[in-house]
Amino acid sequence: MDKEFAGSGTSGDVSRSVWATLRNTAENGLARGALEFFLRTDSPEGTALAPASLLISWPPMPRGLAPTAEVFAEALSERRSSACDADADVDVVDMPAGRTVRVCTATTLDHHVRMPGDAGYLHLAFSMPLSGTEGSMGDLCDAMAQSLRWVPGPSL
Description:
Layout: H1 2-5, H2 12-31, E1 34-40, E2 52-57, H3 69-82, E3 89-95, E4 98-104, E5 108-114, E6 121-127, H4 136-146
Antiparallel strand pairs: 1-2, 2-6, 3-4, 4-5, 5-6
């Protein structure tokens, strides 16, 4: 944070707030099965790309108990409606990796990708707080999710 905010003229309160948000995101992700956390902070001159993050998690779920994508999407829609987050679009889409529940808000894009072997869902949680999901950064995040493929492992 010190490096990113050096010479920016931004107050120490903003730096501490960003640090607390990142720490909380990482800690909450870890508690929910996070595997990776990627953070893009630079914006090369002349580009429209803004800071973004990707948290990849595999929430624990007993094998065989994962709901279908349609049932999962319905549950997410109901949860968001009851949490007054009705501005989210929840859809089931076919991706190369399989049936996926896609949840999109103004600044976040989540892909819950059903894993092979009835092992649950891999969660790709993109956040684009400055640029939003409409535009080039949202398109890039969708393309990253679309690139996911499952590769068969060796036979036992």
